[in-house]
Amino acid sequence: xxxxxxxxxxxxxxxxxxxxxxxxxxxxxxxxxxxxxxxxxxxxxxxxxxxxxxxxxxxxxxxxxxxxxxxxxxxxxxxxxxxxxxxxxxxxxxxxxxxxxxxxxxxxxxxxxxxxxxxxxxxxxxxxxxxxxxxxxxxxxxxxxxxxxxxxxxxxxxxxxxxxxxxxxxxxxxxxxxxxxxxxxxxxxxxxxxxxxxxxxxxxxxxxxxxxxxxxxxxxxxxxxxxxxxxxxxxx
Length: 236
Fold this sequence. Notes:
The protein has about 240 residues and is mainly alpha-helical. It is built from twelve helices and no strands. It has helices spanning about 5-20, 30-65, 70, 75-90, 110-120, 125-130, 135-145, 150-165, 175-180, 185-195, 200-215, 225-235. Helix 2 (about 30-65) packs antiparallel against helix 4 (about 75-90) and helix 5 (about 110-120) runs parallel beside helix 8 (about 150-165). Residues about 1-10 have low confidence and may be disordered.
């Protein structure tokens, strides 16, 4: 495939993502009524996924006596499986699962991975109510924590780190240290220093810890290291 053909295919793939999930950006709208309407739509497509999964599970039970290899050769079973996968492409978080191997920086689903993480960061209760998937959150954070992103993506990741360090700890938040290390910059450090000087006890602890780790890239981000850092800070 030529370079031009690959570029054209990439544009087509991006358009396909937007056609399926462009509406989902309403989940992070500032207007609560827009978010509420988008959550209704999300519930509808999640219902389609559940229905498709139900049909697939029914066919799985019916074809189970065939055995593993022959079961996956049954046309009805295969069709039910394909329908389940297809339904998931229109829903979150399903569309973000099973990312194909390759550079995440060129993955056409990256804007929607960032959307999912921003939704959890900015509207955690709504995210928890409608799409709680801690494993997906963790895997996406780890995936995006690489150097070499575009300036737009680096800015978004910097915003996410700033948001997360200012709140009470939520499951898998510790993974954002990876992101901070990947997008380390004067801008990020300035934001963290501001948070660390604030009256918010979560902010000064979390931001101070991240800054400390940024200066020590060889130190692992473990619970043991966190507890030792907190104890040292308490001793003053």
